[in-house]
Each structure stands twice: as C-alpha cells, then as structure tokens.
Prior knowledge:
Elements lengths: L2 H19 L2 H12 L3 H10 L6 H9 L7 H13 L6 H12 L10 H18 L7 E12 L5 E12 L4 E9 L10 E6 L1 E9 L4 E12 L4 E9 L8 E6 L5 E8 L7 E7 L7 E6 L7 E6 L5 E8 L2
Helix pairs in contact: 1-2, 2-6, 6-7
Amino acid sequence: MPYATQHADLATAELDSVLRGGPFHVALRAAIAARGLPLQRVQHHLSRHGVKVGVTSLSYWQQGARRPQRPESLRAVRALEEILRLPEESLIRLLAETGERTADHRSAGRSYRSLVEASGVLQRLLAEFGTPRDGGLHTLGHHERVRIGARRELAEREAHHIVRAHRDGVDRYVAVHHGDPGSVPERMAVHALENCRTGRIRRHHDTGVLAAELLFDTRLRAGDTFLFRYAVEDGTAGNSREYVRGAHSPGGQYVLQVCFDPGVLPSRCHRFTQHSAAAPRGGHQELALSGRHRSVHLVEPRVRSGYVGIAWDWE
C-alpha cells in the first residue's frame, strides 16, 4: 500500500475514533488534519459561511487552550462540521460533553450541554420567524417575575418589557422561554397581557424551548419606545432550582423576582453571574426571602453580555 494512502487511512481511522469519544479539541485537530486544510483555509471557509473567527482562536481550540463559548463561536463550530465534512452535531456534542465533565461545580438545572443545545435550537426557531435576533429593538428595561408553585415547579413567568426601536417598521417581538429539564413545551401556554397579541408559536420538545411571536398594535419608527407585557404558563417540569437569563448584547435595566409558594420555601437563595455558558459562575450573593409573597430579587442597572440568575436550595 502506498505510504500516502496508508497515512490517509490512519488519519481517517483516528478521526472516526475521536469523533465517538472526544475530547472536542482532539476531534477538531484530527478533522482538520484529515482534510489537509491549513488554518488559514479553514478561516477562509468560515468567512464564506458568514462566520468570523481568527486563526489564533482556531489554533487555541484545537490545542485545548480555549473552548468555543460565545454564540458566534458556537455558530463557527456548526459551520466547521459542514466544512470538514463531519456528521451533523458531532463536534457540538463533544463540546457539550466536555463542558459537562469540566463543570461539576455548576447546577445540573442549566448544564453547559443544555445551554449549547438550546442555543442551536433557538437559532433554527428564530429563522422560522424570519426576524433578526434583536428584532430591531433595544431593551431599555426588562422586569421578570417567576412564580414557583406548590410542587416546587416553575409555574409561571411574567415579563414586562420597555423597548426602543432602532429601525423603522418594527411591529413584533419574539419571546423565548426555556423550561426546566423535563419540561413539556407542548403543554405550555403564552398569554399576551398588555399592548400585544400572540402570533406564531414554535416549540422544541427535547430542549424545553418555546418561542412565541408577540404582535404589537402599531408599527414603530426608529427611536420610538414601546411597552408590552406577556406571560408563559409552564408548570410542566419537576423541582425547579434556578432561573437564568442570558443576554447576547448590552441592554438596559434588568430585574428578576422569584416568588415562592408559602408552603414550600427554599432553605437558601443566592444570585450569580456567568460570562458564558462554559465559564465558571461568579458574583455570588446571598438573598433573603422577604415580603408577603416570600420572594427574592436582583437588579442589574445595566445588562452586559452573559448570564445572570438566582439559584435556590430545597431542604
């Protein structure tokens, strides 16, 4: 057997093996080697897919020095599967599994894998609506009230938005709800409460993601502000242990209030922040239950990219 052919067969065998067992960076390195592409060519192919990633970042990814974490980086990983002629979800799956193995300190309620999978699903659902991710709106204020029911479940989430249009003709907003593990989106209900009405609704059972179109009663011009309110009735999963809100771009004030049923109060609550789905959590702060409705809350005067949330422990 000629040496070149033998070498190619070995590279293909190695790739098949690491695609099954990982880890992610080894599989990526093997896939690039099997296709014989220099990193500059990989970067060029990514740019043709509309994804910008530096050669240095690609090098770090295949060395295991850094991990793709941001939404744009996850888009790049999905594009790499196509460019390198790999099975769909093969690299994303390894990335998620590696994240879970290195993130034992994080709550199982929102694992790295669940956030990665939800990110990809959400992109596909938003594409069905045919609207850009921000919908032409900038958030000036966002107040969420989460109600935890008598079975310790996430019973309902109510959201109050104040937005400003940054282009003409905006007449809708796509609301996203990510249920707890085991939730059933098919049994969730969306209620338009103020200055909007429900339009199309899309659901993804495996990730618990629901996306709902909220239609305004007017078309906004660039610079116009608008206020609307809606709720998602859930109650389809088991014990809820945290609520997390992710932001992909800076925004205005964010307020999260979690209200508990008086008959099943948590033993401890704390707030946290997270730069990305794969990053360690920080900014921990104990929160004391207060008020007639036994609630805790956090206030972010100005939202930054990343995640913020409240977690709680049951007895």
